[in-house]
Amino acid sequence: MMRNNYQLREITFDQWNDLWITVDRTNILQSWHYGEAKKESERMEVAYFAVYESDNPVSIAQVLIKKLPLKLSLARINRAPLVLNSQPDDQIVFETIKLIIDECKIRWWIMLQIAPELENKEQVETNLSKLGLKKLKNPPWASALIDLQQDDDALLSSLNGKWRNCLRKGWKNGVKTELNQASNKNVVKDLVSTYKSLQKKKSFIGLSSDLILSMASRSHSLWSFNIFSSPSMEGEGNQGMLVSVHHGDTAIYLIGSSTNEGRKNQINYVLLWAAIKHAKLSECKYYDIGGLDETTPRGIAHFKKGLNAVPYKLTGEWRGFFIPKILQ
């Protein structure tokens, strides 16, 4: 599909990876490996696109597709399009969305729900509305990023004083951390069991077990599912577990859990700091704290705010319905 000087092309795994490494501040939801995990665990189809301007790639977008009867489908884009080569350009994002809407009409994708990688600004909302999209009431995604390109001393000193004190208390208590291979089935089984118990206790939906298992089963130079744990000092099992995923130049805090013993030993602070340091050593440039908005429970929000990361907030969820071209 072509519009003005922009052309939309479906691309392969290798082509996607070549372009992915040129994205500044990648997000987990647009990673090829996350898309394939969604495909496997939720029986969705996935399409990967790049937009070219005069034959030069300028953006990419992953589309999740849910099939309906009569050749119809629903399309979902979460935190894309992504502009390439570290050049923030809202106009390229809007041009990409226009092309994807054209593609919706060709492929019989009768609904597009999109959470664009665009800031929460009035002009952004105006432009998205002009494309025939309507904003939903869902709270927009918001989080914060830690710059891992600073040296270790600067990174530690950037933390809130109380957060740093809790971290040091955990170290003083003799807390140990382990980085486990996601290929270790027993560790992954323990993680899923712990997370399911947390979901039940805290009454939240979160990630499905199938999605966690599928994500954990994948390994690539641009995808690393890292499971940190801390063995109990009072008995068997772990006093805390944490998942940190590397997905390009950015890593994200995905899952965290702790026992009463772990909380007494400040295990959440120790595990997250270990994950942040590991991401830095793995040459990630940024660490995403994994969500921070008005819906974040007070205790978790307090914990994450202590990292003094740089906040960001996106424009939220938008939806449009489109008639297939053949029926127009």
Report on the architecture of this protein.
The chain is an alpha+beta fold. The protein folds into 2 domains: 2-140 and 314-327, 3-Layer(aba) Sandwich (Aminopeptidase); 150-284, Aminopeptidase (3-Layer(aba) Sandwich). It has helices at 13-20, 32-42, 90-107, 122-130, 152-157, 161-172, 185-202, 209-216, 260-264, 267-281, 298-305, and strands at residues 2-3, 6-10, 45-53, 56-67, 73-78, 82-83, 109-115, 134-135, 142-147, 178-180, 224-231, 238-246, 250-258, 286-288, 310-313, 318-321. Strands 1, 2, 3, 4, 5, 6, 7, 8 and 16 form a 9-stranded mixed β-sheet that branches. Strands 10-11-12-13-14-9-15 form a 7-stranded mixed β-sheet, sandwiched between helices. Helix 2 (32-42) packs across helix 8 (209-216) and helix 6 crosses helix 10 (267-281).
Short key terms for the protein model shown above:
single chain, 328 residues, alpha+beta, Aminopeptidase, nine-stranded mixed β-sheet, seven-stranded mixed β-sheet, 11 helices, 28% strand, globular
Shape summary: globular
Beta strand count = 16
Report the span from N to C terminus.
18 Å
Question: Helix segment count?
Answer: 11
Fold topology:
Elements: E1 2-3, E2 6-10, H1 13-20, H2 32-42, E3 45-53, E4 56-67, E5 73-78, E6 82-83, H3 90-107, E7 109-115, H4 122-130, E8 134-135, E9 142-147, H5 152-157, H6 161-172, E10 178-180, H7 185-202, H8 209-216, E11 224-231, E12 238-246, E13 250-258, H9 260-264, H10 267-281, E14 286-288, H11 298-305, E15 310-313, E16 318-321
Parallel strand pairs: 5-7, 13-14
Antiparallel strand pairs: 1-2, 2-3, 3-4, 4-5, 4-6, 7-16, 8-16, 9-14, 9-15, 10-11, 11-12, 12-13
